[in-house]
DNA sequence: AGACAGGGGTAGG
DNA sequence: CCTACCCCTGTC
């Protein structure tokens, strides 16, 4: 078991906030699969204990432990509302997920919910991914695009109308294209992502934020819409476009972090027991 | 118990 | 701009 220091980090909040779906908790550890990487991890105070087929550098990048967290907080702390949200979700960090897994995860997310997305991802991994035995547990790596080639089998993952999007995405997402998306800038990456069926405005913002390190991305779902209308606009109805442009401008470079704090805070309010 | 609406969104009409 | 979409879950 290896050990690293991780101040200003909350493992549970980071994994459970709804940005990542390929993990489960057992025997006091989180078992995490990200593409072809897998590891177990637990937090004790400011330290992380982990083991798996990964390096320490991978872990630091995955959980953005190298981000200057205090500086980020300073940049987005524009008012009492966001400060309160930050207070309630302190330690939450944005994960840098493997791109293809992230794309499929958020294709699955439309008109869905966290438990169901997790189920879809696990089922797709079992059907198409390579099995690995690790710490007496059977894990499945997340498949490469070319490994997902059977529409009927995808349908068995209960992805419903999203199954055809998963299939098409897997056909189109060659290694070359994925590499291109990783190398290009925010607006270009977003354009390419939105050319996939099943990836629209919101889903592409999520992928930009959770896989491509574009921290100014600001995904607006119904939760963020309701919450920002309530907190910032006296419950007046605003369009998604307005909300996106307003908060990108308002919070600046780390708008995506502000979004995550508001989102986590809103969700936690809804279900205080968790 | 069994029907029914609606969900962290998107494409297509 | 408005709906259907596939499946699951919570609610009546």
Record keyword descriptors for this entry.
DNA-binding; 7 strands; single chain; 274 residues; alpha+beta; five-stranded antiparallel β-sheet; two-stranded antiparallel ribbon; globular; 14 helices
Mean pLDDT: 94
In what order do the strands lie side by side in the largest sheet? 1-5-4-3-2
How many β-strand runs? 7
Distance between the termini: 28 Å
Helical segment tally? 14
Radius of gyration: 18 Å
Order of helices and strands: EHEEEEHHHHHEEHHHHHHHH
What share of the residues lie within helices? 40-55%
Specify the structural class: alpha+beta
Describe the largest sheet.
5 strands, antiparallel
Low-confidence stretches: none
Beta-strand fraction estimate? 5-15%
Large-scale geometry: globular
Structure description:
The chain is of the alpha+beta class and 274 residues long. It is 50% helix and 13% strand. It has 14 helices and seven strands. The strands form two sheets. The protein has a five-stranded antiparallel beta sheet with strand order 1-5-4-3-2. A hairpin with a 2-residue loop joins strand 2 and strand 3 (29-34). Helix 5 packs across helix 6, helix 5 (99-108) packs antiparallel against helix 8 (163-172) and helix 10 (186-194) packs across helix 11 (201-210). The radius of gyration is 18 Å and the shape is globular. The structure holds a DNA duplex (13 and 12 nucleotides).
